[in-house]
Design brief:
The chain is 62% helix and 3% strand. With 220 residues, it is mainly alpha-helical. Strands 1-2 form a two-stranded antiparallel sheet. Helix 15 packs across helix 16. The longest helix has 17 residues. The radius of gyration is 24 Å and the shape is elongated.
């Protein structure tokens, strides 16, 4: 009797009882109208099942189809009305999907596109109106993006720039108005920054700067 084995990537989501099923057991699941059963069916990646389930009314079912990563279904689901499904599609990193999703109305989708790190997407998303997207761009560490984002109006974005520790950014951010940004600068331990930050008005900046500064002195 033919048996179907679940791929490892689904095992965190599907009960152990369904990691291996017979043809008869799979057929019973196919005949069910329960969304959980449909998700199990989709996880076995049979084309005849996916052809049907890609159009299922329940977004959870469609999300399992997207998770298969199969081109045929990603080409459909890239335009899905549910943003969670488009996020899954973006995670697959197909160029033809990213070309569409870089302009997605949902910022979480655009942030995932940024995380894929394609230059032409970052060129667009570095100017995104949502800070979380620009922060995702900063994490890619492209010099031309950091040159822009070091002056970003949002603290979390500038902090993301500071993490890379480029000298020209630290020269600017050591004087940043945000405590958390100056803390990030101090962590790089540049002597000229520490000499400034040990005099900082906020103890959460000055104290750790003192520790690093005097440790460096002791090492000489």
């Amino acid at each position: 009797m033919k048996k179907y084995k679940l791929r490892d990537k689904y095992k965190s989501y599907i009960s152990y009882d369904y990691w291996t099923v017979t043809e008869e057991e799979l057929q019973k699941l196919r005949e069910s109208n329960d969304s959980s059963d449909k998700c199990i069916v989709a996880s076995f990646e049979q084309e005849k099942d996916l052809d049907r389930l890609v159009h299922d009314k329940d977004p959870k079912v469609r999300s399992y189809v997207a998770f298969t990563g199969k081109d045929k279904y990603l080409s459909i689901l890239v335009n899905d009305s549910n943003e969670k499904i488009r996020e899954i599609v973006a995670h697959q990193g197909r160029d033809e999907d990213l070309d569409i999703l870089v302009h997605d109305p949902d910022w979480k989708v655009r942030a995932i596109v940024a995380e894929c790190g394609r230059d032409k997407d970052l060129d667009i998303l570095v100017k995104d109106k949502v800070a979380s997207v620009r922060k995702a761009v900063a994490k890619q560490g492209r010099d031309r993006d950091l040159d822009v984002l070091v002056h970003d109006k949002i603290v979390s974005v500038r902090r993301g720039v500071a993490i890379f520790g480029r000298d020209k950014d630290l020269d600017i951010l050591v004087h940043d108005k945000a405590i958390s940004v100056r803390q990030s600068v101090a962590k790089h331990g540049r002597p000229k920054d520490l000499e400034i930050l040990i005099k900082d008005d906020h103890v959460s900046v000055s104290y750790p700067a003192h520790i690093r500064y005097w440790k460096q002195q002791d090492d000489y």
